[in-house]
Recover the amino acids of this structure.
């Protein structure tokens, strides 16, 4: 005995209102907080110095803050829309350290 496949009924298109910007921002921060993160370290010329763990990078940033370093921090997205946290620690005597927290997986 063959089973007859019956298509599902066609439903009316329902539109969904876009989320408010604050909700989108909160979801992006939550996604970044829950994702496995890697920290890529660059200098102010864009040269990649290597990768760090989040814990080690946070310790470096905290130490620089306690020493009074000039620190800029912002959030953005990469070209695929993945969230990035960027922290620049200024070094007037050498090269700045730019730590980019992302969900890149280099394991």
């Amino acid at each position: 005995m063959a089973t007859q496949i019956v298509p599902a009924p066609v439903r009316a298109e329902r539109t969904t209102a876009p989320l408010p910007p604050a909700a989108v921002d909160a979801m992006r921060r939550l996604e970044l907080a829950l994702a496995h993160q890697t920290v890529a370290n660059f200098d102010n010329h864009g040269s990649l110095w290597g990768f760090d763990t989040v814990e080690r990078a946070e310790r470096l940033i905290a130490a620089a803050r306690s020493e009074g370093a000039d620190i800029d921090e912002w959030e953005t997205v990469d070209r695929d829309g993945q969230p990035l946290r960027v922290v620049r620690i200024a070094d007037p005597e050498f090269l700045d350290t730019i730590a980019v927290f992302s969900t890149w997986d280099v394991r």
Notes: The first strand starts at residue 38 and ends at 42. The longest helix spans residues 21-34. Strands lie at 38-42, 48-52, 71-77, 83-89, 97-102. The chain has a mean pLDDT of 83.
